[in-house]
Amino acid sequence: MDDKKRENKLKLRIKLDKILDERKMSQTELADEMKMTASVMSAIINNKKESIYRKNIEDIAHHLGLKPSDLFESVTVEEFNRLQELGRRKRKKKEE
């Protein structure tokens, strides 16, 4: 696949990071409220999991008062990678 086609390819991205930021809610808070481990919640929020149980998506959406589709967005591969890097920087800054 050439670079131009790769840039136009879309990826499905979980946008829980944006939703939690808007609500001033931490990953840990959501994990605790959902009775999920922090590591699983972190992997979901940071788009590290290739597959997620449908029930988890439905439960998270219901808990936040959203539709399951509200948790996702389609972005280009380039945008996906840019957002992943921004997330890494943000997490690193919080650790300092």
From TrEMBL:
<feature type="domain" description="HTH cro/C1-type">
    <location>
        <begin position="16"/>
        <end position="71"/>
    </location>
</feature>
<dbReference type="Pfam" id="PF13443">
    <property type="entry name" value="HTH_26"/>
</dbReference>
<protein>
    <recommendedName>
        <fullName>HTH cro/C1-type domain-containing protein</fullName>
    </recommendedName>
</protein>
<dbReference type="GO" id="GO:0003677">
    <property type="term" value="F:DNA binding"/>
</dbReference>
<dbReference type="InterPro" id="IPR010982">
    <property type="entry name" value="Lambda_DNA-bd_dom_sf"/>
</dbReference>
<dbReference type="InterPro" id="IPR001387">
    <property type="entry name" value="Cro/C1-type_HTH"/>
</dbReference>
